[in-house]
Amino acid sequence: MTRLTTATALALIWASGALAQTELTMWYHGAGNQVESEIINQIISDFNASQSDWHVTIESFPQAAYNDAVVAAALAGDLPDILDVDGPIMPNWAWAGYLQPLPIDPAKIESFLPGPKGTWNDQLYSVGLWDAAVALVTRQSTLDELGLRTPTLEEPWTLEEFMGAMEAAKASGKYDYAIDLGMSDQGEWYPYAFLPFLWSFGGDLVDVQADPQTAEGVLNGDAGLKFGEWWQGMFANGYAPGPSQDPADHASGFQEGKYAFSWNGNWLALPFLEAYDDVVFLPAPDFGNGNYIGGASWQFAVSGTTEHPEGGAAFIEFALQDKYLAQFSDGIGLIPPTTTAAAMTQNYKESGPMAVFYDLSADQARLRPVTPGYPVASKVFLKAMMDIANGADVADTLDSAVDEIDADIQANNGYAQAQ
Asked: 293 pairs with which residues across the strands?
């Protein structure tokens, strides 16, 4: 009886401990991605078993429906405790009260790449377990055949060199187009991939330092006009397919030899490497004011309505272990945020086939404008880029885009004053 009583008591103690864990709900955007789901569920399981205070349960949504679900839940006062957020959208959600500052010691992420750190109003709101990077993709044999210098991070191509490469590829007669810019991907790809070209000309989407914020002078100023004329010329001169590009050509055209170059992300690097044994991933060109790529991908945050931000932060901090960062990188191909995690991966370790993307992210990544107005501004930018590519007047199109962006800013009392 003593043994039975002891065993029963131990079972009761264990059960009461489990019941004492406070439940935390979590929403995630990765439904449908089996590998991603397996990794995040393993992290949750490990976290729940590692301590007795918190128990996380997850609900996953398809990425296309996720943002709308969060907005609807916020309006209904029914947000989860933990959620993930696309990096450039984070300031809008923080401004709207969907998120609250993340109570994590900044020293915990001191070694992270800049992109995965979600900061707004000088406060940390979110942290990512990975980042993404874009490169100018080609083959070394293509560079050699066209007589082109191989650019480096230290010496990227100038505008003249880049356009010389476009003309050389076109004149060779070997390709349908000189470059695939991904024009068929008509969503967040446009601001993520093409704002860096505007930055390199010296312009921007929104001047977030102005009070109130404005697009006037940065999107439609001299630099913006030069960018717009260059952008339109890429299509008018036949260097790249326009917005009517077949999505299948964007997915596999480079591998099939239709393009000499591809402006593309590390998430498609492996198919390129499988297609050719001499693929090279080159840095963004410098069009006169620096060379840039976009930074920030999906990140974890705690909701503005959770009663347990410390519990959400405990889970997020647990997920930041290098072993999990490496698992995500190996599983879905994105860039681990630390050098120590990168060293644990197949693709990003020193001399790994995609290690160059870590360097590109560390050296060139720049955040899209950190402003609550970004969701509107980015959609306006997308439409303007499509219109200009299709032949619309550059100055008129950019002026109209500025009017739309500034009208949204004014309708929301300037955003910069919102806390």
From this structure: 365
**177 bridge partner residues:** 259
Please identify which residue in the block is written with the tokens 């209904």. Answer: 76
User: What does DSSP assign to residue 213?
Assistant: -
Q: Is the dihedral of CA 187, 332, 327, 28 positive or negative?
A: positive
Q: Please, are residues 200 and 288 in contact by the beta-carbon 8 Å criterion?
A: yes
**N-terminal to C-terminal alpha carbon distance within the chain:** 63
> Contact at 8 Å (CB) between 48 and 54?
yes
Task: Give the dihedral sign, CA 336/131/357/151.
Answer: negative
pLDDT of 19: 58
Distance between CA atoms of residues 251 and 362, nearest Å: 26
Distance of CA 212 to the CA centre of its chain: 26
Q: What is the pLDDT of residues 123-138, one digit of tens each?
A: 999 999 999 999 999 9
pLDDT, residue 1, reads 41
Residue-wise pLDDT tens digits, 1-60 = 444 454 454 444 444 445 589 999 999 998 888 999 999 999 999 999 999 999 999 999
Alpha carbon distances (Å) from 413 to 247, 409, 419: 39, 6, 11
> Cβ(29)–Cβ(60) under 8 Å?
yes
CATH architecture of 22-131+296-367: 3-Layer(aba) Sandwich (3.40)
Tokens coding 84: 């993930």
Please tell me the distance from the alpha carbon of residue 321 to that of residue 395, in angstroms, as a whole number.
49
In sequence order, which ranges of 246-373 are alpha helices (DSSP H)?
Answer: 247-252, 269-275, 309-319, 322-332, 339-342, 355-364
As given in the structure block, the two tokens for residue 385 are: 């880029």
What does the alpha-carbon distance between residue 279 and residue 162 come to, in Å, rounded to a whole number?
Answer: 18
- CATH number for domain 134-294+373-411, candidates 3.40.50.300, 3.30.310.170, 3.30.565.10, 3.40.190.10: 3.40.190.10
What is the DSSP secondary-structure string of 69-111?
HHHHHHHTT---SEEEEEGGGHHHHHHTTSEE-----GGGGTT
CA dist., res. 386 & res. 375, Å (int): 17
Domain ranges of the chain: 22-131+296-367, 134-294+373-411
